[in-house]
Amino acid sequence: MIAKRIIPCLDVRDGRVVKGVNFEGLRDVSSPVELGAYYSEAGADELVFYDITASAEGRRLFTDILREVASTIFIPLTVGGGINTLDDFDRVLKCGADKVSVNSGAIRRPELIGEAARRYGSQCVVLSADVKRVNGEYHVFARGGREDTGMEAIGWIVRGVESGAGEIVLNSIDTDGVKQGFDLEMLRDVSERVNVPVIASGGAGCIEDFVTLFKTLPRVDAGLAASIFHFGEVKISDLKQALAGEGIPVRITK
Question: Which CATH class is domain 5-245?
Answer without folding.
Answer: alpha beta
